[in-house]
Automatic annotation (TrEMBL), chain A:
Protein name stated in the entry: Sugar ABC transporter substrate-binding protein
PROSITE patterns reported for this sequence: PROKAR_LIPOPROTEIN
PANTHER family in UniProt: ARABINOSE-BINDING PROTEIN-RELATED, OSMOPROTECTIVE COMPOUNDS-BINDING PROTEIN GGTB
UniProt KW keywords: Signal, Transport
Organism placement in taxonomy: Bacteria, Bacillati, Actinomycetota, Actinomycetes, Micromonosporales
Automatic annotation (TrEMBL), chain B:
Any Pfam family the entry gives: BPD_transp_1
Entry membrane topology: Multi-pass membrane protein
Ranges for domain ABC transmembrane type-1: 90-309
Single GO cellular component term: plasma membrane
UniProt name for this protein: ABC transporter permease
Annotated segments matching region Disordered: 1-24
Amino acid sequence: MTRFRKLGVAVVTAALAAGTLAACGGDGDSGDGGDAKTLKLWHYESANSAMGIAWDRAIQIFKDEHPGVEVQFERKAFEQIQQNAGMIINSSEGPDIMEYNKGNATAGLLSSQGLLTDLTTETTKRGWDSKLSPSLQTTARYSDKGVMGEGNWYGVPNYGEYVMVYYNKDLFTKHGVTVPTTYDEFTKAMDAFVAKGVTPLAEAGAEYPAGQLFYQLALAKADRKFVDDYQLYKNPVDFKAEPLKSGAQTFADWVAKGYVAKTSASLKAEDMGTAFISGKAPMIVSGSWWYGRFKNEIKFNWDSFLFPGNKFHAGSSGNLWVVPAGSKAKGLAYDFIDITLRPEIQALIGNNGGVPVAADASQITDPKNQKLIENFNTISQQDGLAFYPDWPVPGYYDVLVSGFQSLINGSKTPDQVLDAIAKPYGEGVKEITGK
Amino acid sequence: MALTQTSAGPQRPAVRPEPVRTPRKRRDGGAAYWLYLLPGAILFVLVIGVPLGGTLYLSLTKWSGVGDPTFIGFDNYTRLFQDEVFWTSFKNTIAMIVAMVVVPTLLGLLLAAVLFDVIGRRFKPRTAAALRAAFYLPQVLPVVVAGIVWGWILRPDGAFNSLLDVIGLGALQHDWLGDPDTALPTVMAVMIWVQIGYPVVVFMAALQRVDPELYEAAEVDGANWFHRFRSITLPQIRPETFVVALTCTIAALKVFGPVFALTRGGPENATNVPSYFAYYTFFKKLQVGYGSAISTVLTLIIIVVAGLFIWLQYRGERQDREV
């Protein structure tokens, strides 16, 4: 028995040692780190994207203005940050400033746990709030429960995104279809394509596009109160009433009429995008994140228009700069955020196919980019950013994907789909608000 | 351990003679064994034991992944057993066992016997080896890569539907992975393709250790191929069959990669499996406690199934020795 006891002691000692090592996360200095000589910066934008290009320049400007400060930049994967951010910034290995996903389940969750620095004072002092419209500020501010829209500032966005209709001008001309400006003209244009044997809208049931199309259709009958109720839990949402009922029914009608292919349930966003890029699809309804790629890869004439008839559009600020509570160089982090909001950096975002939030329009030279930004400014100024349908509760993305795959397949009625997506929404909201 | 006992028969004495023992030596040898086991034991505790203990503890809590977990007892388990998706995922696991264990083992057995006994004899051994390698190829491919490629093949405008069109079966064209009725059978078919090479290789290796004289004697006695297969091949390679069945069953119970790459559990949970359900709950819904409960139940099932297989194998060996 002695042998077993000794072995047991050794094992327990090893396990405790491992536990102790794992728990050795430093608390970090919570001061502003005015004398810090290093800024550890992480983001997940690809080097040739609009934001990647702009932030490379911002880092250069930061270095020029902070001689003697070393910038330790690491490019991370989106999933890497999304799944591990809590653990990373709770340890001594975290960055001083990091790009992070906006929304209740991400930045909201971390802020409610005290892991992010409250940027309210700095935002007012440096005037960041005056550069961002109220609907852009929604994703930057979080309540003590981590619900976006009100409370303190825990992040600063510096680009925007929104959903629009991209169309192939050459296919419109070839089939004699007029570019629509109203909802009725939009459906007539799609009828015209169907009559010619062409499916007008490429779709992707296995990923976000189908849910976003449903949301666009619902938003046609929505007001700000609905958006606030749905996204910010201000009041309970009735899924069997307008606008969601109309969104689901119209989606099913569009599948039935052949506007959306019945065989698109298993397709992914990339499939939809490449169908458009290759000239097979006359239109897609998707986000501004495609813009730069379309500019680079499409050989035919193409353009975009806002979803006809809608005041509200799926869209929001881009992701946020956040400063982890354990950052040892907060002052430097604030300086960097400030640089990314300067006209020079904002213009770089705009000129590379991104949507800046504080750009001087005269500095955007490309007409296509100008249109992209003008449309965003139109939505933003009319308080029309309605965020995204999967935001309200964690895991809702997959719920919507599953629901709208059923509508594309015709395996469920709009009523059944609304039931299927209402239940997880209710459970998720209860989990967050306790109501 | 039973493995040291290699022969048995009517000559065996009724009472086993006691081995000569030298107590001092045995004690020293025992201590040395424990010393050698210690690094492995420490690693086991650190790599398996501590995470398992952590998962068990978290399964009794409510936790979003940051902040402090709240202890809630067995609430996650109560919720789990009432969760429709959990039961659907286990129902799909049975389909995965069919696709990853039953069909590949049966088919693998047949293919290995044909390759070894027919192809290997009538053609050059190199032909059988090349075919064996061809069957094994899907096992070499990373499963996510295979999943993505199959996803391309099976998409509505993919190669499979084009092939159906070319051979005049265009009416059968379908969104194979997008339709809840066809998604699971389609994933099962892909899994059979992935899995088939493993039993073929193991069974062919097993067949090489079977004494050829047994086959020759059977042939002299007039046994045809099927008789030889049933009376010699199957009993002789039973240990390997157990190993294949056990490892494939465990692989089927915890299958994740192909489901993630092909369907993400959809459409409508038609292809959801426990490990994907645990991942989704853990990382997407940020319900770490509930995800841990799913993982714990899955681990328990795997331990029970593995124990059952080992017991069956042990019992089989014991029966063999007693014959």
